[in-house]
Structure prediction request, 385 residues.
Amino acid sequence: MKVRNRSARRRGVARRSTTQYIPRALLAAAIALPGLAIIDAHAAAPEEGLIGFKYLYYRDYQPGGERMRVTAPSAFVAKTLPGDVVVNASGVLDSVSGASPLYHSTLSGASGKGIHDYRKAADLKVTKYWDRVSVGVGGAFSTEHDYQSKAGSLDLRIASADNNTTWALGVANARDSIDSTNLVAVGKHRNTNDFLAGVTQVLTPRDVVQTNLTVSRGTGYYNDPYKAIDVRPDYRNQYAWLVRWNHYVESMDASVRLTSRLYRDSFGVKSVTLAAEWVQPIGNRWTVVPSLRYYSQSAADFYFDPPYPTGYTGSGFYSADQRLSAFGAFTPGIKLIKEFASGWAVDFKAEYYEQRGDWRLQGKGSPGLLPLKAQIYQVGISTKF
Prediction:
């Protein structure tokens, strides 16, 4: 049984980048970030290569105006070389424009301070497979007008004799440089180390479970230089526990994929993510995948509710960044996949995101914030070779 699961580190949001303006709950869904410790539960090297192209369109908005738009074309390739060596590479060029929050729900575009930026990113990973062991080494580079990141990763996978169990260990490091265009942050740096331990277990011919524990230790510059007042700690420790369960429903020739993720960090943010997908083949090589994701988080210890700048004393940590507030969010979506006998495949995915303080899972969310809504569309084409 072949199972392909991924676990990826999320980066911080203290920077003016494409993902700087996308809510935390959408980081993984909207734009893939390079240089992550990606660990797949493959017991052997894939026999076929894969090459493809994807295009993403993202827009978010609040009552009274549109905020951000992102377009992101990307390409990827995976190829097995002689000696059971697999090479994976990808690249993305995304463009972001619009108006981002200066604090709470106030839009910078309303004062004529619109945002327009480009990000160029690429990553490369090489994995060597032996009988029951594989080792992967990866590297990535990302650059924008005011931000640059270099990252590397190393992972080890060990499979049991029957290939029903796979243990995974991974480490990654990212070194970021920040030079804001307003000259508030010049020559600033951030260094992040990530660690992952996990296991994937085939329970029955119809059930596969995966669990991962990730720890991230970051030090350096975390302030948002584009906000009038934003002072954050110079370190951030993050902890996440992820559990996935894939179950095959024989009577319907379908699969259900359930995911839960618990997260907490040294900023004081605690979150829970619950997600479900139903993978249903239909007709002639068609597959439809409806999905629903729920996300809830508490506010950071140094986040203050509206009106701005309530709570600021001139010293200590302070932020009015809406992404550090307490809220809940729902993301329904649907994906269509069409496979052809020639090995080609096309797919289309659409998601809708809505975030409100009242939707927080436990306790009340942060008051006085406008609802945030977003639409995400992706289209892709790929072929095996």
